[in-house]
Specification:
The structure is a single chain. By secondary structure, the chain is α/β, with parallel strands linked by helices. The chain is built from 29 helices and 15 strands. Strand 7, helix 17 and strand 8 form a beta-alpha-beta unit. The mean pLDDT is 91.
Length: 708
């Protein structure tokens, strides 16, 4: 079966079959996607994570189709209708839609009108009419009159026969494909407001009377309509061109001009209206929803990746504030590892306005704990708190960070385990501080759905969304790598080959035996076998350990190569890491063998240049304009600094510091056509924007980046 899968996947993804076979073999052997893409480039021909994940997904879908085939064959066989030709056709089919079309006539169904007619013995009459030969249909129908069976008249017999014909046409592959073809070109999606819901459903008013070709309907519009429908404000329908469909169906099934042909035409009309059209409408509604889901998930994944890969401040002592007015600002002090040192509350804003007391507390805490940076949540009172802190002139950088999901974390089991004796306000403030130090390490503790970088995430397929988001988190964590001696169990969970149980075992071992001195010591961790070690080791870092390569992305299986390079140059491995002139003398071709290829050797040399390098950007300070604090301050024409907070396929949302996210529509990003906003902006990018429109009533802000 794997050879068939390899061939089908190769054709669909346009990847050479040998590379597909290599990936499938490695996956079957228990290798993870990050491990394969990073350490098995020779085998895969250098396929990246996205390609490997696509191969894995396609294999999963083919396995599901194979399971479905077994069920279908078994069901048809039980009916005694499985011919060798039908069996072969099912086995040869790998298109799920085609497979279901083949199965449809044999699929157990509820008691339909056609089934009732068959029970009355009218199937031979249906076949006679469908053959459309010359002959008196009425005379034939008279033979089936049987009051005991409920066929009282000639008309009853013909009506029942036409019900059978209508169902058979609706289950005919040609008929279904005829209607599908029309839908693929001409289907229109329409939405109307539910009467009496105009006021209540104002947020969907763009779709109160909306119509567009389905093929052109952007995913965000389709999902918005479906949400409006689910909430009871809109009626949404998808339809093709009925006239063209009927014309083509008639041409396919009606032969001649006799009485039987006229009756077949009647059956076609009934079949199309009652069975075929609703079925294909449902099919296209599902297909369009799946396509919209894929697009929405793709955008969410891309945004999540950018968020997780946000620039970290690094290991510095941080004072973090969760701002507030009436309840005050919760203050926490963290050491360079993110451990909680102290917490307090200040009230620098109305109604208490304890400005002097708040100032003295902050200055004392900065001095006492050697604070090196300040992190402020971007929620309520954020701008006022930022202004207060900057006014103290502490001489240290001040950053505003997103607090999306902080409240989710603070009430979670993870937070309770970390801080069992602290309340949710302290935990939330700690999260705000740690997000500045290392966004990735902190955000992995929060359900990606709660981080606030998607659109319509509640409306898409939750299983597919979770799978894609988990895969993204795994990719990001392994791309950066983690320090095995400082990483939390939640961060370690996402490392290739580990999982929750092994991550907890590593933390427990670390607590009992102290810091790991080298990677090989990981094999002493309970349940850490050679396979798990192989998958995980390259992504785990041991700083200041006994082997300098343990703090790099060089995999232990390749240490011998580096040691051989050092021996050939008459130096130590540590000398190679420290001396660029020594590294320049390495001739990689000397070390190519059946065990290690050029791609791996090139990766090794990159690591020797900057061992354990963090692929994330450097963190930069940012300041909002002092001209605007709330939406009422914003005037059309103003040019203001902002931070990109979310990216969709129709534009980007930008925070200018007024608690209302402004939209830069894709048409306002540049003086040229921008097909994909992600090619022009990135999450958390600092940008300049011009105010186009301010809608105080709807709390909306329109921005432009043209000519800036």
């Amino acid at each position: 079966m794997s050879s068939i899968f390899s061939k089908l996947i190769s054709q669909e993804l346009n990847i050479p079959i040998k590379q597909v076979e290599a990936v499938l073999s490695l996956l079957d052997d228990g290798c993870t996607i990050p491990f394969i893409s990073r350490y098995r480039k020779e085998a895969t021909g250098g396929l990246d994570e996205v390609q490997i994940a696509s191969i894995s997904d396609k294999q999963d879908r083919l396995i599901e189709i194979e399971k479905r085939k077994v069920t279908i064959i078994s069901t048809i066989d039980e009916q005694g209708k499985l011919t060798p030709e039908l069996h072969k056709r099912i086995e040869d089919t790998w298109n799920s839609t085609e497979l279901e079309d083949i199965y449809m006539p044999f699929k157990p169904k509820r008691r339909t009108r056609a089934q009732v007619a068959r029970e009355k013995g009218l199937e031979p009459l249906a076949h006679f009419i469908m053959s459309q030969h010359s002959g008196d249909v009425g005379h034939q129908a008279m033979q089936y009159i049987d009051s005991k069976k409920g066929v009282a008249t000639e008309e009853d017999a013909i009506k029942g026969a036409l019900d059978i014909i209508a169902e058979e046409i609706s289950e005919d592959e040609r008929a279904r494909n005829t209607v599908r073809k029309n839908f693929s070109f001409d289907a229109v999606i329409t939405s109307k407001v539910v009467k009496g819901k105009e006021e209540e459903g104002q947020k969907f008013r763009d779709y109160f009377d909306f119509s567009e070709k389905l093929s052109r309907c952007a995913s965000h519009r389709l999902l918005a309509m479906r949400r409006g429908e689910a909430e009871g404000f809109l009626k949404v329908s998808i339809s093709g061109d009925d006239g063209i469909c009927m014309e083509r169906l008639t041409r396919s099934f009606v032969r001649g001009r006799g009485q039987a042909s006229d009756l077949v035409a009647d059956a076609i009309a009934d079949s199309f209206k009652r069975l075929l059209k609703p079925s294909i409408e449902t099919e296209y509604a599902q297909l369009s929803k799946e396509k919209a889901d894929e697009e929405a998930i793709r955008i969410f994944v891309r945004n999540l990746e950018q968020l997780l890969m946000s620039a970290p401040l690094g290991q510095k002592r941080v004072l973090a504030l969760d701002p507030g007015f009436r309840t005050g600002c919760k203050v926490v002090c963290l050491d360079a590892e993110g451990n909680l040192l102290h917490h307090d509350v200040i009230f620098p804003h109305p109604p208490k306005s304890q400005f002097i007391d708040s100032m003295e507390k902050i200055e004392a805490l900065v001095k006492k704990f050697g604070i090196e940076a300040v992190s402020i949540g971007n929620g309520t009172a954020s701008r006022e708190t930022e202004e207060f802190i900057k006014g103290l002139e502490l001489g240290i950088p001040v950053f505003v960070v997103s607090e999306d999901g902080a409240s989710i974390y603070s009430a979670s089991k993870i937070a309770r385990e970390e801080f069992p004796d602290e309340d949710v306000t302290v935990r939330g403030a700690v999260s705000i501080g740690r997000r500045l130090m290392d966004p990735l390490a902190e955000l992995v503790k929060i359900d990606p759905n709660s981080i606030g970088v998607g659109q319509y995430q509640k409306d898409v397929n939750q299983t597919e969304l979770k799978k894609s988001l988990d895969q993204t988190v795994i990719s990001c964590v392994n791309k950066v790598g983690v320090n095995v001696n400082t990483a939390s169990k939640h961060l370690l969970t996402y490392i290739s080959g580990l999982g929750p149980a092994l991550a907890q075992n590593i933390v427990n071992y670390r607590a009992e035996h102290g810091a790991f001195k080298n990677r090989r010591e990981l094999l002493k961790v309970p349940r850490m076998g050679e396979k798990a070690f192989q998958q995980a080791a390259g992504f785990l870092r041991v700083a200041n350990g006994t082997n300098p390569l343990d703090n790099s992305a060089v995999h232990p299986e390749s240490y011998w190569v580096v040691e051989q390079m050092a021996n050939d140059l008459g130096c130590k491995v540590s000398d190679l890491l420290a001396d660029a002139s020594l590294r320049s003398k390495i001739d990689l071709n000397r070390y190519v063998s059946d065990k290690v290829g050029l791609p791996t050797l090139q990766d090794i040399c990159k690591e020797l240049e900057k061992p354990g390098r963090d692929p994330r950007e450097k963190l930069e300070e940012f300041a909002f304009s002092n001209e605007v604090k709330q939406l009422e301050d914003v005037q059309i024409g103003m040019v203001l600094p902002g931070i990109v907070t979310n990216i969709t396929n129709f534009g980007a949302f930008v925070d200018i510091g007024v608690h209302t996210q402004g939209l830069v529509h894709v048409s306002e990003m540049a003086n040229k056509f921008v097909k994909d906003p992600n090619t022009f902006v990135s999450l958390h990018q600092h940008v300049m924007v011009r105010v186009k429109d301010v809608d105080l009533k709807r709390n909306r802000l329109s921005l432009s980046m043209k000519n800036l």
